Amino acid sequence: MQQYLSFIKIFGAILVTAVLAAPVSAHVERSVGAVSAELHIEPNDAPVAGQTIALRFGFSSTDSGLSLASCDCHVTVTELDRYSATLSLTQLATEPNSSEQPFTFPHSGEYKLTVIGQLRSASGSAPFTLTFPVHVAAPPAKPINPFAYIGYGLAAMLFAGGLWAVLRRIDRASR
Asked: What is the CA radius of gyration of the chain?
């Protein structure tokens, strides 16, 4: 009986972990030479195909020579070489060395965002290229019904209770 109870405990822990687990995203930072850029996608770094999002880039430089206002910078969005778009990066008035561009990913899948830039003011400054991988989720097929999760929870509890009853009956019969 003890082995059955430990099985139920392990199964329950796995079930609870699977139900409560959520995907985690973070800002992506890339550097080349003295230039660094951080990509943040609004909302929540989780783009969905067909929904307009904001591509937000924050730039920094180790030699303090970077100014987005004096940079010929653009970002190219590529999806497996079948879709490509180019956006100019302009400095936000409220935040120096930051840029925000609205964008809509047409399809779900893997994309590559390539930031290409060169400072206008510095003579002989080397151009820089930074690449960011982005996963775009498919749009939900239908609106999520929060009451459906109650049904899933009840079904899991009924299954666990039924399993417990069967194992208890087997244990009593073996005595």
From this structure: 25
- Residue 146: in which H helix or E strand, if any? helix 146-173
User: Does the predicted TM-score (pTM) go above 0.85?
Assistant: no
Query: Please, what's the b/e burial string for 60-98 (b: 16 or more CB within 10 A of its CB; e: otherwise)?
Result: ebeeeebbbeebebbbebbbeeeeeeebebebeeeeebb
Task: For residue range 44-53, list pLDDT tens digits in order.
Answer: 888 999 999 9
CA dist., res. 56 & res. 63, Å (int)? 22
Return the half-sphere exposure (C-beta side, CA atoms, 13 A cut-off) of residue 131. Answer: 6
DSSP 8-state code for residue 24: -
Strands (E), the chain: 28-32, 35-42, 52-61, 71-79, 83-88, 98-104, 109-119, 128-136
